[in-house]
Amino acid sequence: MTTMTKPGEFAEDAAPAASDAFLSVRDLYVRFSTEDGIVKAVDGLSFDLERGRTLGIVGESGSGKSVTNLTVLGLHNPATTEVAGEILLDGQELTGASNRTLEKLRGDKVAMIFQDSLTALSPYYTVGRQIAEPYVKHRGVSKREGRERAIEMLEKVGIPQPRMRVDDYPHQFSGGMRQRAMIAMALVCNPDLLIADEPTTALDVTVQAQILDLLKDLQQEFGSAIILITHDLGVVSNVADDLLVMYAGRAVERGSVRELIREPQHPYTWGLLGSMPRLMSDVTEPLTPIPGAPPSLLSPPPGCAFHPRCGFTDLVGGGRCATERPELPDGRGSACHLTGEQKRSVFIETIQPRLG
Amino acid sequence: MSNDISLSKAPAAAAAGEPAGETLLQVSGLTKHFPVMGGFPFKRQVGTVQAVDGIDLTVRAAESFGLVGESGCGKSTTGRLITRLLEPTAGTVSYRGQDISHATRKELAPVRSEIQMIFQDPYSSLNPRQTVGTIIGGPMEINGINPPGGREKRVRELLETVGLNPEHFNRFPHEFSGGQRQRIGVARALALEPRLIVADEPVSALDVSIQAQVVNLLQQVQREMGIAFLFIAHDLAIVRHFSQRVAVMYLGKIVEVGDRDSIYQRPRHPYTHALLSAVPEVELEGEERERERIRLAGDVPSPINPPSGCRFRTRCWKAADKCAVEEPPLIRLAGAEEGHLTACHFPEEPTIAARDEDIVMDPALAALEDVSDRPQ
């Protein structure tokens, strides 16, 4: 379960939070300086993740979901990036950590699966060598043992004839097989935390189903915590335990998958649900898109960043949406000025019928 | 979004006195093989990519026909053959009774204004050095069309139809977001009042919330202007939302075609079952229903050396000896609705409800699930 502590409360909560949450992100700010100005890619984000759980982070492009996780791994460019806040991994602070500390973690305790397997794998080295590399480095085993481990992992992720394929280069693999090889590479050291950034977006739907089920089944075996980043609510609703919806660098809603799909509270989540045709929806009913486009992170709108696209600002009244930024409460909740009663009645009366 | 301006002009189909439902486009035995060159020092043909291999389909006037399949199944090539951006290796494409499969550039000119295309990538399909006005007005200029009030007025009307500010006439594509660019692409396709629009993955490059805007726009255009659509996409839910009839393609062949409901509710081909069961679906309150679970093994085989007989047999759980030898014809099976054709020797039951036992072909998944099942 993800919970949130307000920045001020952090000092008191630090000890218990560190003990039961494996990854704990507190009040994270990530800013890039660019020629056009400062991009506020992540703007005060907090979440917790326990071992063995899967957290789905959903949002459109530019919502800060990928940047958050690159920052966890320290993969941002330190020269142009300003990071504030705390990232505690198993009690270890990662925000100001040296490159050496991070290098020890990457591939061992924390691993990542990228979206585009063709660019994420090096074309110069065989698949087997790339899978074995973190194992050899972190476990200090010989190359031969690394190779054996790579074969074992390839078999686990379902590559046929792993003993032959281990010496293939990435271009000799199909898209689905490359993604499997990347999963093998990520899991080779039994990581405690696996970050999967749009792991199936580039894949066909039948292959996507295979890979998602594989991730789910492997998690049961390895017991890793998984962060699954995606723009597809359908994907996370089938795989994740908890959900975090991000918009313009901030979390706008959190809860368990069940809570969030059954009774979403934030107008942006309503918009996401209404934008997607589903296999069971009524085809005569037009989709209900979110008007407008996502804001520029160079100058996000004041107040609630979603207010220019929101159809419910009148219900709040007093122009609060444009001036006052709503906070995301602890646990299940949404960052919106609508009252709980309003959220419930708007969803049941207006939104749910349209989802058909 | 304003739309009354161009809609006040009579829809193209109605103007020609053509009743909806008449065949607009007839494709039969359409085949496209691309040569694979190799060898040294002299390049010669070493194989062929059988991108599209003998497909038949008809698109009726004012109808939306969906073409769905995974990457490499030949759906985009089909779209390009129909718009004659490619010339077919064999088979015919006839548009309103006229065979255009090998027509010359000159012969094609009048037809081209009636068949337009919307491309997938709104970044590369618009010329960055032209203003929006030039891009949308281009087709009119080439075809020598002078609408009353001038081309510029018409371009402004079109911009308004697709929900853009007509004042943005003089802007360049880079000044627009992805969704807005795709709207420019739609305006360009509408400029000549076409009867058929081939939309090749028109929304897959866009964000979810923007996708819905463009889908609604296309649907509005389709309904109100009576334009027939060939809607090509890999997203089954979007195709279902947009198309009255749907064809499912696999490795250059149509494996199943039929009305929307019969394809999505009563599929017969194992591949259609597998595709539908693979769609990750959000289940809302009161919708919990047991769907069948089918997980195929591996990827789509290469179209350079497609499997003999039925092309799906290498991934099919029902494959038998007959499938390797004999290619199943695309026919109406006993009990299927009219117009619902399936190419399979051993069709599945017409339901998508959960089975007694999941079908898991993937060896890794099967192994992992076997282990987790055992202790219970």
Describe the structure.
The complex is a heterodimer of chains A (356) and B (376). Chain A has 356 residues and is an alpha/beta fold. Among the domains of chain A are: 119-190, no CATH class; 265-355, no CATH class. Chain A is 39% helix and 20% strand. Chain A is built from 15 helices and 11 strands. Chain A has helices at 10-20, 65-72, 99-105, 117-120, 127-139, 143-156, 162-165, 175-187, 205-222, 233-239, 257-262, 267-275, 313-316, 320-323, 340-355; strands spanning 23-34, 37-49, 54-58, 81-89, 92-93, 110-113, 193-197, 225-230, 242-247, 250-256, 333-334. In chain A, the strands form 2 sheets. A 7-stranded mixed β-sheet of chain A has the order 6-7-8-3-9-10-11, with helices on both faces. In chain A, strands 2-1-4-5 form a 4-stranded antiparallel β-sheet, with helices on both faces. The longest helix of chain A has 18 residues, at 205-222. The radius of gyration of chain A is 21 Å and the shape is globular. Chain A starts with 9 loop residues before the first helix and ends with a helix. The relative contact order of chain A is 0.13. Residues 1-19 of chain A have low confidence and may be disordered. Chain B has 376 residues and is α/β, with parallel strands linked by helices. Chain B folds into 2 domains: 4-243, Rossmann fold; 250-373, P-loop containing nucleotide triphosphate hydrolases (Rossmann fold), CATH 3.40.50.300. Chain B has 13 helices and 13 strands. A 7-stranded mixed β-sheet of chain B has the order 6-7-8-3-9-10-12, with helices on both faces. In chain B, strands 2-1-4-5 form a 4-stranded antiparallel β-sheet. A two-stranded parallel ribbon of chain B has the order 11-13. In chain B, a hairpin with a 2-residue loop joins strand 9 (245-250) and strand 10 (253-259). The longest helix of chain B has 18 residues, at 208-225. Residues 1-18 of chain B have low confidence and may be disordered. At the A-B interface, helix 8, helix 9, helix 10 and helix 12 of A face helix 8, helix 9, helix 11 and helix 13 of B.
